[in-house]
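Subject: Histidine kinase structure
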Amino acid sequence: MPVKMTIFRRLILMLILLILPILGLYMYSNQVSVGVVRNEVKESNLQHLSFLLRQAEMTVEQLTLAANTIGRFQVVDDLIHIDEKRSNYEKVVIKQDIIEKLRLSGASSNWTNQFTVYAPSAGTGVTTLNSADYGAMFAKDAITKEWKYRETSENGMPVKQFVRHTVYPGSRIIVEVSFTADNIRNMLDQIKMKGKNDPFFYHPGDLPILNRTANGTLIEGVVDYLNGRKVDAGGAESGTEYVRLQGRQYMINYVKSETLNWVLVDYVPTEYRLSPIKNSSLLFYACIGMLLAMSIAFALLLYRNVQMPVSQLLHGVRNMERGQFSVRLTNKQKNEFSYLFHRFNQMASQIEQLIENVFAERLRSKEATLKQLQSQINPHFLYNSLAFIKSMTELEEKEAVIAMTLNLSQYYRYTTRVENQEATLGEELELVRNYLTIQSLQMQRFDFELDVPVDMLDIRIPRLILQPIAENAILHGLEPRMEWGLLRIAGERDCAGNRLIVEDNGVGLPEDELEKLRIKLDTPLDNESGCGLWNVHQRLKFRFGPESGVQISPSPSGGLRTVLHWTDHVNKGGPS
């Protein structure tokens, strides 16, 4: 069922259509702003990480360059031939000189580092470490020309460090340079001190190198995510990922170190940078909410002061259209609608008074019309009855005269009572029984049946409503037929209304004549139209409404089937 668009609904719809574009435009603008800020934050973080990582790589490259330079010192060649020195003093001087040069090379870097020079041919070496196992340090499988992360022991304590070897031609000298993970940790601490970051070094298969105040639980979640995404040193140089951890969304930025083959990772909450935009969004939505609340309050005020009075007026007008002229409107508020309601009530009162006057006049007119219609029925039947009595008297048929006289007296006793224009269906059936008995005495070649349910006998109907139908069935249906005839009157009652069915097996009418007769029933009476059916049809319509009346159709037995139908309620025009 479609919803009727009242003025109130139109105003509400217009209000919604005004707010929705503003809200949609702001949401789109907010999304664009968030996207721009998010990209700027991502680029800024990546650039910052790249800069810091580049500084670390420069330090590592300095250590690599220093290791490559150490092998060119002349004193290193003396280490190769140290066994040729006969004096232990000379051997100590050579190693001491090399240690000084190693410390000088390491001093060029601000990272804590260690250098070791090993001569495989001499089986000896020099190191800045406190102690060294040259055989294990320079075993064939321990030599690496790229930076490698490993765990060693120093003074019995485990130490994690990055190490790289420089092997000179002919393996005459091998230089090892290393630095501990604490250098990386110090760099991460410096990065974290500058913001909300929590950086760490990551490499698949190894424990991450964390800053000293790292959130281990969150970093564990980030590492699990990176392992699932297969982010490692062999992948892209840099990138950004978004992950939700512990109910918050984080931006993960990572940059690959080409020198160390590790990845510098940093993660920050996305709302950290977007909180100003979020706050402004909340403020805007709060304003929209207030505007919507005020709009609803305005709409309710409009509904109470305009829509409700308009609805009352419409309801009152519709009731008047239905004929309920007693409707009155009330308005407790003192506004413009009070005057309209007052004038409407005055108008309704005047119309009600006029309708009552017109209705009373119409009732009197109907009563006069019905009496005229009733008077048109009687003469035709009376002439035939008197002619029958005269004929039977001449033939000295005493019983026929008595039967005719009794039925005729009962018939006219009923028809001449004009003080009441209504009767019960039982009284009408008794009248029809008298009439059919009289007709059977005259014709003596038809039978009749009356089959009406008992619960219909007390129904009030206009008087002389059934007799004209029976008269037409006899005169125009059974009388022209030379064979024995049958007239049957039956009653039916259901939720659709009441029906009296008059059916005969007479000569009937062709379909075109039937159609003409149906049309004449609803046309004004003229000299060419018959009286009986037209009278009954019009009286039923007067009494029970335009849906009631007479229906004519062919009968399966060969004659006509006439149906009088009406409902139990009285029409809107009132009783006739």
